[in-house]
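ok so i was messing around last nite and threw this chain in just to see what happens. nothing serious, just curious
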Amino acid sequence: MAHFLRGKQAGIQHDLSAGLAPELFALDDVARYGINSQISTLAYDPVQSLLAFGTNDTQYGSGQIYVFGQKRVCVTLAPPRKASIKSLQFCADKLLSVDSKNDISIFSLETKRLLASYAPPGFVTALLTDPTLDYALIGLQNGDIIAYDLDREALAPFRIPNLWRERNPKARILPVVAMALHPRDIGTLLIAYSEGTVIFSFKQNKPTKYF
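result:
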Protein backbone atom coordinates (compact mmCIF):
# COMPACT_ATOMS: atom_id res chain seq x y z
CA MET A 1 0.00 0.00 0.00
CA ALA A 2 2.82 2.42 0.86
CA HIS A 3 4.51 1.63 -2.48
CA PHE A 4 1.25 2.31 -4.29
CA LEU A 5 0.79 5.65 -2.55
CA ARG A 6 4.36 6.68 -3.32
CA GLY A 7 3.75 5.79 -6.96
CA LYS A 8 0.67 7.99 -7.05
CA GLN A 9 2.60 10.87 -5.55
CA ALA A 10 5.32 10.43 -8.18
CA GLY A 11 2.81 10.86 -10.96
CA ILE A 12 2.08 7.21 -11.89
CA GLN A 13 -1.56 7.28 -12.86
CA HIS A 14 -2.05 4.03 -14.77
CA ASP A 15 -3.00 0.71 -13.21
CA LEU A 16 0.13 -1.47 -12.95
CA SER A 17 -2.00 -4.61 -12.56
CA ALA A 18 -4.04 -4.04 -15.71
CA GLY A 19 -2.24 -6.81 -17.61
CA LEU A 20 -2.69 -9.45 -14.94
CA ALA A 21 -5.24 -12.16 -15.62
CA PRO A 22 -6.55 -15.05 -13.48
CA GLU A 23 -5.00 -17.66 -15.78
CA LEU A 24 -1.52 -16.35 -14.91
CA PHE A 25 -1.89 -17.67 -11.39
CA ALA A 26 -2.08 -21.32 -10.38
CA LEU A 27 -2.48 -22.25 -6.71
CA ASP A 28 -1.13 -25.65 -5.81
CA ASP A 29 -0.07 -27.67 -2.76
CA VAL A 30 3.65 -27.51 -2.17
CA ALA A 31 3.63 -29.68 0.94
CA ARG A 32 1.33 -30.88 3.68
CA TYR A 33 2.28 -31.55 7.28
CA GLY A 34 0.47 -33.28 10.09
CA ILE A 35 0.03 -31.60 13.48
CA ASN A 36 -0.84 -33.63 16.55
CA SER A 37 -2.99 -31.00 18.26
CA GLN A 38 -4.44 -27.51 17.98
CA ILE A 39 -2.04 -24.89 16.65
CA SER A 40 -1.52 -22.14 19.23
CA THR A 41 1.23 -19.99 17.68
CA LEU A 42 3.67 -19.80 14.79
CA ALA A 43 6.94 -18.14 13.80
CA TYR A 44 8.66 -17.68 10.44
CA ASP A 45 12.30 -17.02 9.61
CA PRO A 46 12.56 -15.75 6.00
CA VAL A 47 16.37 -15.90 6.00
CA GLN A 48 16.55 -19.60 6.87
CA SER A 49 13.20 -20.45 5.24
CA LEU A 50 11.95 -22.06 8.43
CA LEU A 51 8.38 -22.20 9.72
CA ALA A 52 7.64 -23.23 13.30
CA PHE A 53 4.29 -24.16 14.84
CA GLY A 54 3.45 -24.52 18.53
CA THR A 55 0.50 -26.59 19.70
CA ASN A 56 -1.77 -26.70 22.72
CA ASP A 57 -1.73 -29.47 25.27
CA THR A 58 -5.14 -31.07 24.62
CA GLN A 59 -6.84 -34.43 24.59
CA TYR A 60 -5.65 -34.87 21.02
CA GLY A 61 -1.96 -34.51 21.85
CA SER A 62 0.64 -32.84 24.03
CA GLY A 63 2.06 -29.40 23.41
CA GLN A 64 4.93 -29.60 20.95
CA ILE A 65 6.93 -27.51 18.49
CA TYR A 66 7.13 -28.40 14.81
CA VAL A 67 9.81 -26.88 12.58
CA PHE A 68 9.40 -27.20 8.81
CA GLY A 69 11.80 -26.12 6.09
CA GLN A 70 12.97 -26.80 2.58
CA LYS A 71 14.03 -30.23 1.32
CA ARG A 72 11.59 -32.02 3.62
CA VAL A 73 13.05 -30.59 6.81
CA CYS A 74 10.75 -31.62 9.66
CA VAL A 75 11.76 -31.51 13.31
CA THR A 76 9.64 -32.02 16.42
CA LEU A 77 10.68 -30.43 19.72
CA ALA A 78 9.08 -30.91 23.12
CA PRO A 79 9.00 -28.47 26.05
CA PRO A 80 10.77 -29.56 29.24
CA ARG A 81 7.40 -29.93 31.00
CA LYS A 82 3.97 -30.90 29.73
CA ALA A 83 2.46 -27.61 28.61
CA SER A 84 0.95 -25.62 25.76
CA ILE A 85 3.18 -23.45 23.59
CA LYS A 86 2.25 -19.75 23.87
CA SER A 87 4.80 -18.05 21.61
CA LEU A 88 7.81 -18.81 19.41
CA GLN A 89 10.70 -16.71 18.13
CA PHE A 90 13.65 -17.52 15.89
CA CYS A 91 16.99 -16.00 16.85
CA ALA A 92 19.85 -16.93 14.49
CA ASP A 93 20.59 -20.63 15.15
CA LYS A 94 18.19 -20.82 18.09
CA LEU A 95 14.46 -21.11 18.62
CA LEU A 96 12.87 -19.69 21.77
CA SER A 97 9.52 -20.70 23.16
CA VAL A 98 7.29 -19.57 26.01
CA ASP A 99 4.83 -22.14 27.31
CA SER A 100 1.80 -22.15 29.57
CA LYS A 101 3.96 -23.16 32.55
CA ASN A 102 5.76 -19.82 32.09
CA ASP A 103 9.00 -21.56 31.09
CA ILE A 104 11.27 -20.09 28.43
CA SER A 105 13.01 -22.83 26.46
CA ILE A 106 15.97 -22.33 24.13
CA PHE A 107 16.43 -24.93 21.40
CA SER A 108 19.37 -25.35 19.04
CA LEU A 109 18.33 -25.50 15.40
CA GLU A 110 21.64 -27.16 14.56
CA THR A 111 21.58 -30.02 17.07
CA LYS A 112 17.77 -30.09 17.44
CA ARG A 113 18.16 -30.28 21.21
CA LEU A 114 17.11 -28.25 24.23
CA LEU A 115 19.96 -25.97 25.26
CA ALA A 116 18.46 -24.37 28.34
CA SER A 117 15.22 -23.69 30.16
CA TYR A 118 14.54 -20.69 32.36
CA ALA A 119 11.67 -19.87 34.71
CA PRO A 120 11.41 -16.06 35.01
CA PRO A 121 10.48 -14.41 38.33
CA GLY A 122 7.06 -13.43 37.04
CA PHE A 123 4.48 -14.02 34.35
CA VAL A 124 5.92 -13.50 30.85
CA THR A 125 3.86 -11.08 28.73
CA ALA A 126 6.37 -10.21 25.97
CA LEU A 127 9.54 -11.62 24.45
CA LEU A 128 12.01 -9.87 22.15
CA THR A 129 15.05 -11.28 20.37
CA ASP A 130 17.31 -10.11 17.55
CA PRO A 131 19.86 -12.13 15.53
CA THR A 132 22.52 -9.49 16.19
CA LEU A 133 22.12 -9.74 19.98
CA ASP A 134 23.08 -12.49 22.40
CA TYR A 135 20.29 -11.49 24.76
CA ALA A 136 16.57 -12.10 24.95
CA LEU A 137 14.51 -9.33 26.53
CA ILE A 138 11.66 -10.65 28.67
CA GLY A 139 8.72 -8.42 29.55
CA LEU A 140 6.87 -9.32 32.75
CA GLN A 141 3.36 -8.75 34.03
CA ASN A 142 4.62 -6.35 36.71
CA GLY A 143 6.07 -4.10 34.00
CA ASP A 144 9.73 -4.99 34.52
CA ILE A 145 12.03 -6.13 31.71
CA ILE A 146 14.86 -8.58 32.33
CA ALA A 147 17.54 -9.91 29.98
CA TYR A 148 18.55 -13.52 29.46
CA ASP A 149 22.05 -14.23 28.11
CA LEU A 150 21.58 -16.75 25.29
CA ASP A 151 25.32 -17.36 25.00
CA ARG A 152 26.01 -18.05 28.69
CA GLU A 153 22.53 -19.52 29.23
CA ALA A 154 21.95 -17.49 32.37
CA LEU A 155 20.12 -14.41 33.55
CA ALA A 156 22.04 -11.21 32.75
CA PRO A 157 22.59 -8.49 35.38
CA PHE A 158 20.29 -6.08 33.57
CA ARG A 159 16.79 -4.92 34.42
CA ILE A 160 14.53 -2.12 33.23
CA PRO A 161 11.99 -1.21 35.92
CA ASN A 162 8.40 -0.35 35.15
CA LEU A 163 8.93 3.02 33.46
CA TRP A 164 5.26 3.84 33.13
CA ARG A 165 4.80 3.72 36.90
CA GLU A 166 6.77 6.96 37.05
CA ARG A 167 4.14 8.43 34.75
CA ASN A 168 1.17 7.00 36.66
CA PRO A 169 2.15 5.94 40.20
CA LYS A 170 -1.47 5.11 41.08
CA ALA A 171 -1.80 2.39 38.44
CA ARG A 172 -1.98 -1.11 39.93
CA ILE A 173 -1.26 -3.40 36.98
CA LEU A 174 0.97 -2.18 34.16
CA PRO A 175 2.25 -5.21 32.23
CA VAL A 176 4.63 -5.01 29.29
CA VAL A 177 2.44 -5.61 26.22
CA ALA A 178 5.09 -5.55 23.48
CA MET A 179 8.66 -4.50 22.71
CA ALA A 180 10.48 -3.51 19.52
CA LEU A 181 14.02 -2.42 18.71
CA HIS A 182 14.62 0.58 16.49
CA PRO A 183 15.40 -0.71 12.96
CA ARG A 184 18.20 1.82 12.52
CA ASP A 185 19.42 2.12 16.10
CA ILE A 186 19.84 -1.09 18.08
CA GLY A 187 20.37 1.02 21.19
CA THR A 188 16.78 2.28 21.24
CA LEU A 189 13.92 0.19 22.59
CA LEU A 190 10.19 0.85 22.25
CA ILE A 191 8.21 -0.52 25.21
CA ALA A 192 4.43 -0.77 25.11
CA TYR A 193 2.53 -0.92 28.39
CA SER A 194 -1.21 -1.33 28.87
CA GLU A 195 -1.60 2.46 29.25
CA GLY A 196 1.02 3.85 26.87
CA THR A 197 4.45 3.48 25.29
CA VAL A 198 7.97 4.56 26.23
CA ILE A 199 11.17 4.95 24.23
CA PHE A 200 14.15 3.71 26.25
CA SER A 201 17.78 4.44 25.39
CA PHE A 202 20.33 1.75 26.27
CA LYS A 203 23.13 4.26 25.76
CA GLN A 204 21.68 6.77 28.23
CA ASN A 205 20.10 4.07 30.38
CA LYS A 206 16.91 6.07 30.75
CA PRO A 207 13.57 6.76 29.03
CA THR A 208 13.71 9.51 26.45
CA LYS A 209 10.06 9.88 25.47
CA TYR A 210 6.57 8.94 26.59
CA PHE A 211 3.48 8.47 24.41
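not much to say yet. Confidence is low (pLDDT under 50) at residues 1-11.
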